[in-house]
Amino acid sequence: DSGVTQTPKHLITATGQRVTLRCSPRSGDLSVYWYQQSLDQGLQFLIQYYNGEERAKGNILERFSAQQFPDLHSELNLSSLELGDSALYFCASSVGGQVLMGGYTFGSGTRLTVV
Amino acid sequence: AQKVTQAQTEISVVEKEDVTLDCVYETRDTTYYLFWYKQPPSGELVFLIRRNSFDEQNEISGRYSWNFQKSTSSFNFTITASQVVDSAVYFCALSELGGGSQGNLIFGKGTKLSVKP
User: Which residue of B has its CA nearest to A55?
Assistant: First the structure.
């Protein structure tokens, strides 16, 4: 167990729908990162939050949004889903805003299937 | 721009063979971190190693060893006496610490290693 908890593990939904993926970081970690792993694009960084504030943005679509709550858990919201959004979504956490400041731990991922 | 290239898409070996997975990176920063992760068929990402740009010393951990060469921008990973349990996709990744980067990782496309009994 990495200490980073992602729920749900699997999600199947229809095109056009909206889903929310949840991530609880490892205890003591303030930073949460979201990644998408798809067959086409590989593993891509989406967005990072540090202590409740957005810190960095990667290749995140406008249909996607995220937030980090006061208890430091994070949610990734995916809306107007398309078939191409089917992917494995990973959350990672670290102590500080940069990977320098300690470990960088991934959760086990949420597999999203859009049908 | 930063980039990680894993030229080997798939490698197949027979158990007990040694195998080297190549990783070449591009970055303009002088301060950065390099990583290797293993993704077994179950899908999770398993951390293997982190190396900072100031430490070119090679590392060995059991059957695993890593060769970091800044002169060629490479960070290769060798598995000695491979085992069936080593079958997985292996990812090399880069993280820069300057220029506003906040530690996000840039991954290579991965190398799928199949170890046959």
Answer: B102
Closest by Cβ to A106, choosing from B33, B45, B110: B45
Q: How many Å apart are CA B41 and CA B21, to the nearest integer?
A: 18
Answer yes or no: are the C-beta atoms of A75 and A67 closer than 8 Å. yes
Chain B residues within an 8 Å CB radius of A94: 103
Cα separations in angstroms, A15 against A38, A63, A80, A110, B106: 17, 13, 7, 17, 29
The reply to whether residue A109 touches residue B44, judged by beta carbons under 8 angstroms, is yes
Convert the pLDDT of each residue in A16-59 to its tens digit. 999 999 999 999 889 999 999 998 889 999 999 999 999 889 98
Contact at CB, B106 and A99, closer than 8 angstroms: no
pLDDT in tens, A57-96: 998 999 999 999 999 999 999 999 999 999 999 999 987 7
3-class DSSP assignment, residue B71 = helix
Average pLDDT, chain B: 91
Q: Which residues of A touch B37 (CB under 8 A)?
A: 106
